[in-house]
Amino acid sequence: MTTAPIVRTVEELRRHVRAWKAAGEMVGVVPTMGALHEGHLSLARRARKECERVITTIFVNPKQFNNPDDLKKYPRTEEADAALLATVPVDLIFAPQPEEVYPDGFITTVSVGGVSEPLEGRMRPGHFDGVATVVTKLFGMTMADRGYFGQKDWQQLQVVLRLVRDLNIPVHIVGCETIRETDGLAMSSRNVRLTPEGRAKAHVLYEAIMAAATDIRAGQSDRMAIREAAEAIRAAGFDRVEYIELRDAETLMPSDDPARARRMLAAAWLDGVRLIDNIPV
Ligand code: PAF
């Protein structure tokens, strides 16, 4: 299997993309920070089905880490990532150095109000500004027609949807289903940091929010169902439940209106690893 060319500069990236576009080909981009797993590959496969050309970007974006230690520890596995992408396959891997993305003098921040503020935005100040800034840049650099994002990061997906709408960025966003392990745990690059004992319990996060969603649909009060979910997660041995919230699926504002699409979102710590998940209610 041949691996896709790894391109480091915007100039070279654009040379490829311009040639594809001149031939009338549709270009899809799958933005990632590497440490790829089946969840990322499913995005790339979807892009492969829908676009003539597929770019995967691999860039550990320093601007979205509010904890410098987390940034330092973030796994960098480019060779293994390229080998996995060859199984899709993708046409090009764009893996720039930080100086290519944020050259000297870089001063612009893209900040999406509203949807960026609660939940992850409150727990990780500056995180979504970093995401919005780099995603805007990646769209500009790749000139992609379609962008593929996982529903696992539901709030991020809503931030990106809002961003492209508000800034008239000509890219169609495709939100793809969360890919889960056989026990239900949402796939994430962080899962490998769990101890075997932690990994064995981690599925409880998903099960607890699923049970809460079922109870709410059956008429139980939101508050009671959420309290029971938090208790189940703590009882399974998680260190801490950071939040479990029922929100409007699009705006992420509190919602007790069952007529609107709602989403239950949760974040909890296990083994010193922060896990997030979400489901429709
Ligand atoms: O979801 C991620 O991996 C990142 O937040 C993204 C979208 C690649 C931006 O750095």
Structural class: alpha/beta
CATH architecture of the largest domain: 3-Layer(aba) Sandwich
Number of strands: 9
**Assigned CATH class of the largest domain:** Alpha Beta
Kindly describe this structure:
By secondary structure, the protein is an alpha/beta fold. The longest helix is centred in the middle third of the chain and has 16 residues, at 127-142. α7 crosses α8 (154-166) and α10 runs antiparallel to α11. The mean pLDDT is 97. The chain folds into two domains: 6-176, HUPs (Rossmann fold); 189-280, Pantoate-beta-alanine ligase, C-terminal domain (Pantoate--beta-alanine Ligase, Chain: A,domain 2, 2-Layer Sandwich), CATH 3.30.1300. The chain has eleven helices and nine strands. Residues 31-33, 61, 64, 131, 134-135, 153, 156 line the site of pantoate.
